Amino acid sequence: MTSLKPVRGTQDILPAESRLFRRVEETAFEVAERYGFGEITTPIFEFTEVFSRTLGDTSDIVTKEMYTFEDKGGDQITLRPEGTAGVARAFISNGLQQDLPLKLFYRGPMFRYERPQKGRRRQFRQVGVEILGVATPQADIETISIAQTFLEELGLKNNITLELNSLGDSASRNAYRDELVKYLSGHQDKLSKDSLERLTRNPLRILDSKDESDQAIVVNAPRLQDSLNDASQSFFEDLCEGLYKLGIAFEHNTNLVRGLDYYCHTAFEFTTTDLGAQGTVLAGGRYDGLVGQMGGSETPGIGWAAGVERLTLLLDDGVEAKRPIVVIPVGGEAESEALVVTEMLRKKGYRVDLGYSGNLKKRMKRANQLNAAAAILLGEDELTRNVGTLRDMDSGEQKEVSLETLEDHLAPYK
Ligand code: ATP
Ligand code: MG
Q1: Is the pLDDT assigned to residue 56 strictly greater than 80?
Q2: What mean pLDDT is predicted for residues 308-315?
Q3: Closest C-alpha to ligand 1, atom 29
Q4: I need a surface site. Which of 31, 140, 222, 260 has the fewest CB within 10 A?
Q5: Closest approach atom of ligand 1 to CA 116
Q6: How many whole angstroms separate alpha carbon 6 and alpha carbon 245?
Q7: What residue's CA is closest to ligand 1, atom 24?
Q8: How many Cα atoms within 13 Å fall on the side-chain side of residue 318?
Q9: 3 state DSSP class of 411
Q10: What domains appear along the chain, each with residue ranges and CATH number?
Q11: Is the model's pLDDT at 163 over the cut of 70?
Q12: Distances (CA, A) of 308 to 228, 271, 272, 324
């Protein structure tokens, strides 16, 4: 029955893998707090306009990837494909202009209809940060340094490269756009179909094309960095200098672009060669025009988002679950008393599991399966003396302990 399979591109995340996901998200959350970011949670669906008007109608997300539907009230709704548009919408809806500058962190599921493969899902999770209200490169430096610290704390320093580029301000970008279109128009016969479409609507994206014949043309295209005006140039120099001071290494990738109109100045990606084609683990940029374009007052912004699945794929060491203590009643009478002891220990902060059924041997086997650190065996005659047997599951050593002072013996297992 096909309906018992998860929908293509979605997955069940079972306990062992969930621990990896939590490690990524909790590390991100902890680092974000350390850097002074507060958490924001926006709805996982929004009016379609929130995305279609901001992400640009030529972007892959809007043209191919959105999960959009009409709800029972007739509203056009979209499951969020990314986090920034919702955060910008929330910034405007909640009238947060008074609180600038704002540093926000988010985490949660995103939805994109795309071809599923390793590291590419239709429902996936992101963690991300945004800084709103800071027009100077200080915010760009902080945004990149928090990303770097986050990846470092996950143990992912090696095999990850920071690629960085500047798109310049809008004057620089418009000048460049004209020059690029002029050049590419001379090579129309060799451009891919996608790129031909982009030529009029979104030419900068052609620089990013994965098509080989496009790439051969792009190699000789005029370079964006040569069109940067003085203000844009010095913005980028300040950013590079700031990163240098913090010891953050990067590669200047002059073809790294974000195609949408509201992007400017900084664009960056942290990439790895360890995930095949899905090599970008974290990507971000400056979007000074976004809030204005959505109808709010002009507010500069910069941020990034990281794919949690891709990061978990890079974490090779599993996160061990904490080892429980298992309480094992021996004999029917002991069952209810075992539950009392179990609850008491849980309330005191111990991780305790209780064997549900079966003979002693079966319950011991179950304790081993749970990787228990210790077992507390409660026999009926022992209970009349208010004692139990504490067994260290690694050494196999057993000793009789008073239930009154049980906790004194459990410190090594907390
Ligand atoms: P790609 O070029 O891989 O499609 P993108 O430019 O669409 O990436 P962004 O919108 O910048 O990606 O999203 C930021 C990060 O979110 C990506 O770098 C990636 O780690 C992750 N990501 C994006 N789409 C997916 C997906 N479908 N499944 C899993 N992770 C994803
Ligand atoms: Mg994509």
Answers
A1: no
A2: 95
A3: 120
A4: 222
A5: 27
A6: 48
A7: 120
A8: 7
A9: helix
A10: 15-169+229-312 (3.30.930.10), 325-413 (3.40.50.800)
A11: yes
A12: 34, 14, 14, 28
User: Residue for token digits 């992400």?
Assistant: 55
In angstroms, the CA 125 to CA 192 distance is: 32
Residue 119 C-alpha to ligand 2 middle, in angstroms? Answer: 11
Q: Which of 21, 253, 280, 313 to mutate to test the pocket of ligand 1 (most atoms within 8 A of CB)?
A: 280
Encoded amino acid at 258, one letter: R
Collapse the DSSP code of 288 into the 3-class scheme (helix H, G, I; strand E, B; otherwise coil) and give the result.
coil
What global pTM score does this model have? 0.90
| Closest C-alpha residue for ligand 1 atom 30 | 307
Ligand 1, residues at Cβ distance < 6 Å: 82, 112, 114, 119-121, 124, 126, 278, 280-283, 305-307, 309-310
Rounded to the nearest whole angstrom, what is the distance from the C-alpha of residue 148 to the centroid of ligand 1? Answer: 18
User: Number of C-alpha atoms within 13 angstroms, CB side, residue 87?
Assistant: 29
Residue 394 pLDDT: 94
What does the pLDDT look like over 278-304, one tens digit per residue?
A: 899 999 999 999 999 999 999 999 999
Q: Which ligand is closest in space to the CA of residue 305?
A: 1
Shortest-distance ligand to the CA of residue 113: 1
- Report the residue count for the chain: 414
Residue closest via CA to ligand 1's atom 9 equals 283
Q: What's the gap in Å between 279 CA and the centre of ligand 1?
A: 9
49 neighbors 254 (Cβ within 8 angstroms) = no
Looking at the CA of residue 310, tell me the nearest atom of ligand 1: 20
- State how far the Cα of 189 lies from the Cα of 195, in Å rounded to an integer: 11
- Identify the band that residue 1 occupies on the pLDDT scale cut at 50, 70 and 90: low
Nearest by Cα to 105 from 84, 130, 82, 132: 130
**Which is it for strands 67-70 and 251-252: parallel, antiparallel or unpaired?**
unpaired
Instruction: Give the residue whose CA is nearest to atom 8 of ligand 1.
Output: 280
Sheet with strand 45-47: strands edge to edge: 45-47, 76-79, 67-70
